Amino acid sequence: MTEPRPDSEEALGCCQHAASSPLGLHRVLDPAGVLPQAAWRLDARPEIWPDEIRVRVRRLNLDAASFRQLFEASDGDAGKIKSAVLDIVATRGKMQNPVTGSGGMLTGTVEEVGPASPLGLGPGDKIATLVSLSLTPLVITDGLARWDGGSEQVPCDGHAILFGRSIAAKLPDDLPAELALAVMDVCGAPALTHRVVSASPARQPVVAIIGAAGKSGSLSAAAARKAGAGRIVGVVPHEAEAQILRQASGADARYGLVDEVVIADARDPVGVSAAIRNAAGRPADVTVVCVDVPGCEGGAILATAQGGTVIFFSMATSFTAAALGAEGVAADVTMLVGNGYVPGHAQLAIELIRSEPGVRSIFQRRIEDHSE
């Protein structure tokens, strides 16, 4: 029996009758048998299976590593960046940068909910997806006419599909949509940092945040304080970001967002590890990497105490460099790759942005800078 083409009437009708996978396997077109994130191409047609949800897309948030790659590959040309994003989505049925392998997330309004959807959402709900665009079926219909190509946040029109095992959160009413999207895009980092610092065997552990003046870094610093960190060292690449971090006060008037600010190149293993050790008086018990450039594995490992933990929360991280680098310097450290999901991660991040004026000021500054 010949299989129906994906765009045939027979294929379109099957959505309402054929069995679907909560993992989205039924949306994989090429190659067959892999998960949607690993697929080269997804079926992004709007008709939904019984356990799916269709979302009217309002805004994408490209992950930092992907946007940096697109920007550099296009020499900063906005038209080329827009064309690249449109080509990726049209070709692959999802927004997954073929160089970095990463995507981002989106906000939108629920249009249709299948009768077997377990996500607890209804038509009209304004949501942020908490799963990557690299596995989310997506169609863009407006040619990105409202995007200037200069920001990670991409206003657009189109539709996306959520599976039975997808994750989404309703947007809070008290935060601007752009701010809520920026927070939820990185909410896995503070949640994992909070978990690891809370469980650290060290009393009042020293925590180093590499990239502390960024979105995920500032939230992770606030989460580390909330979890009981005794001393927090924020690492930034230059004086401009150091000033941003110094001005960011914590919710507790006795503290800043971090205790020490150091300027160092995260790609310089000896330099960044020495800077962290000098600032804290000893190696870090927990080191969190929140920068979107490759080559930061060695410094994070060297900066961390024996028996400590390194959290790599960047799509630019190389597993090979981290594993072999730690082995090469005889570092007995636990290395975690943040996967973006920790139970309760969205709520924790939203609570931090509400309660920490210093973090909110950093987010607002970055949103305003990108809107100019």
Task: Describe the protein.
- The structure is a single chain.
- The protein is an alpha/beta fold and 372 residues long.
- It folds into 2 domains: 9-176, no CATH class; 188-342 and 351-371, Rossmann fold (3-Layer(aba) Sandwich).
- The chain starts with 8 loop residues before the first helix and ends with a helix.
- It contains 12 helices and 14 strands.
- The relative contact order is 0.12.
- A 6-stranded antiparallel sheet has the order 6-7-3-4-5-8, sandwiched between helices. The chain has a 6-stranded parallel sheet with strand order 11-10-9-12-13-14, sandwiched between helices. A two-stranded antiparallel sheet has the order 1-2.
Features:
372 residues, alpha/beta, Rossmann fold, 2 domains, 6-stranded antiparallel beta sheet, 6-stranded parallel beta sheet, 12 helices, 14 strands, globular, disordered N terminus
